[in-house]
Amino acid sequence: MSQRSGILFLVSGPSGSGKTTLCRRLSEEGEASYAISCTTRQPRPGETHGKDYFFLSIPEFKEKIANGEFLEFAEVHGNFYGTLTSEVINKLEQGTDVVLDIDVQGAAQVRDTTNPTVKNALVDIFIMPPSKEELHKRLSGRGTDSTEVIATRMKNSLEEMEHWPKYTFRLLSRTHEEDYTHFKSLLLGERLRINRHL
Hints:
Blueprint: E1 8-12, H1 19-28, E2 33-34, E3 38-39, E4 54-55, H2 58-66, E5 70-76, E6 79-84, H3 85-93, E7 98-101, H4 104-111, H5 116-121, E8 122-128, H6 132-141, H7 147-161, E9 169-172, H8 176-191
Helix pairs in contact: 6-7
Family: Belongs to the guanylate kinase family.
Subcellular location: Cytoplasm
Pfam family, one: Guanylate_kin
């Protein structure tokens, strides 16, 4: 019996939706390998290079764009973010499931890829906050951003939420545990699909 290729579990959602927490927990429990993104933004307190993100300078990032090293990249909130193709392809070909936490711009680029490994592996899901009020509460609760930054993130989040119909699945966020149960169940269900074993 041939080994199945890995699943590329692409996850999007606005800031405050809980998508990063879900992706990290899935990785920490050994269910999937987390694809670490590159960014030009400054590290937040407690963030580590090579664990949370690959923190790059703008010239470093642009050099990788020129070399065609990104599966997807975008400018978000004035900073560049991107996923290295090498972070994804090798794992998928080895049969490892990969979870990818990216915004709607990046997701569109991944959907448009011509790489057959990525196209065959892709499963996309949008994490939707329960309400605008809850979203604002979550964004304000971080305690790391100014009122202006929160307002900008809220505006961008509402714009991102308009893209959910482009995704195969939508998870309406409730509690952390409920979200994770549904999130993990979706991945397990995809592993059972017959066409992933042919």
